[in-house]
Design a protein that fits this description.
The complex is a heterotrimer. Chain A is mostly helical. Chain A contains seven helices and no strands. Chain A has one domain: Four Helix Bundle (Hemerythrin (Met), subunit A). In chain A, helix 3 runs antiparallel to helix 4 and helix 5 runs antiparallel to helix 6. Chain B is built from three helices and no strands. The radius of gyration of chain B is 29 Å and the shape is rod-shaped. Chain B starts with a helix and ends with a helix. By secondary structure, chain C is mainly α. Helix content of chain C is 86%, strand content 0%. Chain C starts with a helix and ends with a helix. Chain C has one domain. The chains are: A mainly alpha, B mainly alpha, C mainly alpha. At the A-C interface, helix 5 and helix 6 of A face helix 8 and helix 9 of C.
């Protein structure tokens, strides 16, 4: 029983000092990113000031995808090497990724209103993100559906691995379906031709979102470790 | 003053730009606060349990040393803890 | 192979003995489709336009109905544990149960689909394509659904959870199934869509039993 926690304890010792580092990094990067977003980044010649939405929309979408990949890697490690810490990382990543995906949808539709004239179009990228949100919600629902947390970890790990094989297929089919039904979308942001004055704020904001992710991830993993210790202690007290 | 109102107007896109940043801020702060609160409450529970755990074996050693003693004492100790 | 057939036969005879299962699935399929003319109005043009999509969505939902009990009864009465201990590879067991599921739900849906095509005023040129698309698509639905059914064993709120897990994964099959029929009706080449549907099936055929077996193993551990 204690062997199982030897590893998490070392992780706790190593990662505790990282929490304030990540917190400060997030605060500073976010402040710099917001300053650049509103004061140094130029308005787009076509989209005017509304282009500033890009600086939260694009990082959210990137993080939404990044978290899913991270969750899949953690789930695979947890499943193959029975690494309990990886299970906790996968579980802790899910709500953060879902939040970012949700944000990318909301900001995308708020950006779409002035650009497309409507809050929602079945644009290929928006639709893919919507499906991704459902995948996150399904993962979290399965994770929490078992009385035995160990079952939740394993079942949801298999689900996220099935999902990660499916994500490219879903993306491909949604793109295909979309080109069939309507012309390409109006917004072409994030292409390689983006001007440096817009690229820098985007990169700083993305970095801020990443440090935020690490910060909240550490907090959640620490909480999960505490929860599993509580469970172990309760079990022992019940059996004593 | 005009510069401020101009800035807030966001070239006519204020109704879309500001809600975007507001919702992002609300969601990110809420997730952070929820994570922090969960961590705090679990650590508090864990500490309480660990203290109870440390207190326990010391008291239990007495009934174990004298197995003939009434089982009631053990139950009372557990209730005290 | 003999063990595989034995499990298929056992599940089929169970389905026959309990009766009504396939009938219920087909009835749900028909009813769900029949609701649409009430929802969107009876104009033949409108119905013809949405026919393929409605039939596919209804088939998707109908295929999900009996999924929940794919492994549930075996899990509860303990025969699943016996199956995991049997010399037969668990992957083969899963595949056999999925084949039985398809024979009791997918196949009746395919048989019933021309009737619905008539009710939904689908262009007559689309009938054979509809049947062919369903024949290629519904096995994938059973395979993907089988993984979901294995994952929810022993969970709370199984049925609702299952739909939340499985429906997003059904989207590619839905997209290509519908567009195959639409393309054929519109007079376009539908070969690409059928090839993708076949590709999905070929990929799901080895992967889903494997993932399903992994899920069953952790459920019976």
């Amino acid at each position: 029983m204690f062997n199982r926690f030897a590893n998490p304890n070392r992780f706790l010792r190593l990662s505790r000092p990282l929490v304030p580092v990540m917190a400060w990094a997030t605060v500073l990067l976010m402040a710099a990113g917001l300053y650049m977003t509103f004061f140094t980044a130029p308005a787009d010649y076509q989209q005017g000031q509304s282009v500033r939405i890009m600086y939260v929309h694009v990082p959210s979408a990137w993080m939404g995808l990044f978290c899913y990949v991270g969750m899949a890697v953690a789930a695979a490690v947890g499943l193959i090497w029975r690494h309990s810490l990886a299970d906790l990382v996968a579980k802790a990543t899910a709500p953060i990724g879902a939040a970012f995906t949700f944000l990318s949808l909301v900001t995308g539709s708020l950006w779409g209103k002035p650009m497309w004239g409507t809050y929602w179009v079945w644009d290929a990228r928006l639709t893919s993100m919507l499906v991704l949100l459902f995948l996150y919600l399904g993962y979290m629902a399965l994770q929490n559906a078992f009385d035995d947390p160990e079952r939740g970890f394993k079942a949801s790990a298999i689900l996220v691995l099935v999902g990660v094989i499916n994500v490219p297929i879903i993306k491909f089919s949604v793109d295909w379906w979309n080109t069939l039904h309507q012309p390409a979308s109006v917004i072409k942001a994030g292409g390689p031709s983006i001007h440096p004055s817009m690229l820098w704020p985007l990169l700083v904001m993305s970095l801020a979102f990443t440090t935020y992710y690490v910060w909240v991830l550490l907090l959640r993993v620490h909480a999960e470790i505490a929860a599993s210790k509580i469970r172990a202690l309760r079990m022992r007290q019940a059996s004593a | 003053m005009d510069a401020v109102t101009d800035f807030l107007a966001m070239g006519g896109y204020a109704a879309f730009v500001w809600p975007c940043f507001a919702i992002t801020a609300v969601v990110m702060v809420a997730l952070l606060v929820q994570s922090l609160a969960a961590l705090k409450s679990r650590e508090a529970t864990l500490r309480a349990l660990q203290q109870a755990e440390e207190a326990r074996p010391r008291r239990r050693r007495t009934p174990q040393a004298a197995p003939d003693s009434t089982p009631d004492t053990g139950a009372e100790v557990a209730r005290e803890a | 192979m003999r063990g595989f057939l034995a499990i298929v036969r056992r599940d089929l005879s169970l389905a026959v003995r309990q009766g009504m299962d396939s009938v219920m699935v087909v009835m749900f399929f028909v009813l769900a489709c029949v609701l649409f003319p009430f929802g969107v109005g009876p104009e033949p043009n409108v119905l013809a336009r949405i026919a393929a999509g409605v039939i596919w969505v209804a088939a998707l939902l109908a295929a999900m109905l009996s999924l929940e009990r794919l492994f549930q009864t075996d899990y509860e009465d303990g025969s699943l544990e016996l199956l995991t201990l049997s010399p037969l590879a668990l992957e083969v067991v899963v595949l056999a149960k999925i084949v039985a599921h398809w024979l009791t739900t997918g196949l009746p849906l395919i048989v019933a689909s021309p009737l619905l095509a008539v009710l939904m005023n689908l262009d007559a040129a689309g009938y054979p394509y509809m049947v062919l698309a369903l024949a290629l698509g519904t096995p994938s639905l059973s395979l993907i659904g089988g993984v979901g059914a294995a994952l929810i064993l022993g969970s709370r709120r199984g049925g609702v959870l299952l739909s939340l897990l499985v429906l997003p994964l059904y989207i590619p099959v839905l997209i290509f199934g519908v567009s195959a029929v639409d393309a054929a009706i519109g007079g376009f080449e539908a070969k690409a869509q059928f090839l993708v549907l076949g590709g999905i099936l070929l990929a799901a055929l080895p992967l889903c039993p494997w993932a399903g077996a992994a899920a069953l193993r952790q459920a019976t551990e």
